[in-house]
Amino acid sequence: MTNRESGPNGQADQSFKTSESSSVDVLLEDVSAGYGTRAALEDVHLEVPSGSLLAVVGPNGAGKSTLLKVMAGLLRPWSGRVEVLGEPPGRAAHRIAYVPQAEMVDWQFPVTVEDVVTMGRYPRLGWIKRPGALDRLAVADALELVGMAGHRRTQIGSLSGGQRRRVFLARALAAEPDLFLLDEPVTGVDATTQEDLMDILEGQAKRGRTVVATTHDLACAAQRFQRVAGVNRTVVAQGPASLILDPEVLAKIYGGHLLVVGGQTYLMDDAHHHDEAAAGERHFHAESESSGTHRGGKD
Amino acid sequence: MDPIGQLGHLLVDPLGRAFFLRALVAAILVGTVCAVVGTYVVLKGLAFIGDAVSHAAFPGIVVAFLLSGPYFLGAAVAAVGTALSIGFVSRRTQLRLDTAVGVVFAGTFALGIYLYSTIHGFVMDLMGLLFGNVLLISYGDLVGLVVLGLLVLAVIGVLWKELLYATFDPLGAAAAGLPVELLEYAFLAVVAVTIVVSLKAVGIILVVAMLVTPAATAQLLTVRFGRMMALAIVVGIVSAVVGLYVSLWADAASGATIVLVETALFLAAMALGPRTGLLSRLRREN
Questions:
Q1: Structural domain count of chain B
Q2: Range of B237's domain?
Q3: Is the ipTM of this complex over 0.85?
Q4: DSSP readout, A21-81?
Q5: Which of A128, B77, B128, B256 has the smallest C-beta neighbourhood within 10 Å, fewest atoms?
Q6: Contact A286 B165 (CB under 8 A)
Q7: Does A273 touch chain B (CB under 8 A)?
Q8: CA-based nearest distance B123→chain A, Å
Q9: Residues B217-254: pLDDT tens digits?
Q10: Nearest CA in chain B to A171
């Protein structure tokens, strides 16, 4: 069912109890999740080692965003065990920075670049307190790191696609999290921006922080990430990033979307659309509470 | 008499009368509170909920009258209860939010009319309830409104940044550990109390304008959240004061006059606004 590259099962179970000292930041065991009665993910097993840079790849509607939402504690799984930073999902929220897809954001909202990045500091500020000198410093550093220091007073709607992604990464950086959960952080950006953003994420991983990012860009996943998880309604493969250069693994992830011509493998994945995320958004509040026990399961 | 002196008389003379002073304080309070809360209402797209909650206050007012309690207490209980149940229904059932709002909205208003029609004799001012008459506000009511208004401002003062984050990016805020669902309920309760504060000034039917129009006007003029709220407050207060004087001079309904001033300011912002303004668009085309 699942193709587990590393870590014997026994060790995974062990880490559930002594997780604080273990080196696994995210652990999913037999997890199923979905919206309403529609299952998006089934029987997921996934381990994300601390300090790793993990790309989540897979075709449209494969459940990549859903996987990220389960890790972020935004979607309660129907079944299975989830442990994030050694705690049940949502419990370690102040150590997590989640960045939604660009399509989920209202870009006409009256906030500037600096306002958005400062929001990254809000959760650690606590109630009533206003951002102080330390927060302003963290915001300035994050803006400097993503190369947006010159745009701090710009309203977010007048930014380019690449600049928007830079700003949201800066918000995540300002939160100084132990775990980054990024939904399509380099989708629709130019090559320079992609390189810059990946350099930053690499730097974070080197400092022991863990990065999980969904992406459609297999070349980027293979070259710039350390690890990869192939998703198609479940995690069908996980291991070092070079894994997805294997045509057999690609066939498992992409199924019918793959075309092999004369020894060359071509991926027929259409440019991404976000039906899955949009539907999930609509159903989340209505369903997450009531769907504790029943499972769609048939498709 | 010179024209300036005459204008001075028109502005100053009413201030000598207690009823006008009370009305002025109430109108300024309503303008401020509605602008602050309305900024979030506009950005969250909750105008329709505001309208529903104000109609839901009606049965509460009638019941308060039947029990001879203060009207704003009855209104507050009914409005807050309705706001929270709309939030609950939309989160926990398959119904679309606007459907849930539509059902609640008509049902509660019908209950109010039903109860009202059972009261015999001409004891309650229905027109005043529906369209407001701030010039008739009593001292006791004014004290109640000031307390409720300050309560709303205090709650927003405590929650402003969490509400801002949850409004802008609910997923990011929830993942970072903010209690987004709780904030939503708290905000709905705040909207309900704001509406209760505004009822005497503009009445059930027109409250939604106080909540939405100043914030919408401000949004046409700025792209910064803080300035949007500040501008909305200015629009709210100016409309309240100007509207009150005009209604006195013209002997017209005060609530409707205030809302008309707000609408005029909105139209002016639309015509002259820096980004969306018709004038700047014409200038760009030349």
A1: 1
A2: 3-278
A3: no
A4: GSSEEEEEEEEEEEETTEEEEEEEEEEEETT-EEEEE-STTSSHHHHHHHHHTSS--SEEE
A5: A128
A6: no
A7: no
A8: 44
A9: 999 999 899 999 999 999 999 999 999 999 999 999 89
A10: B172
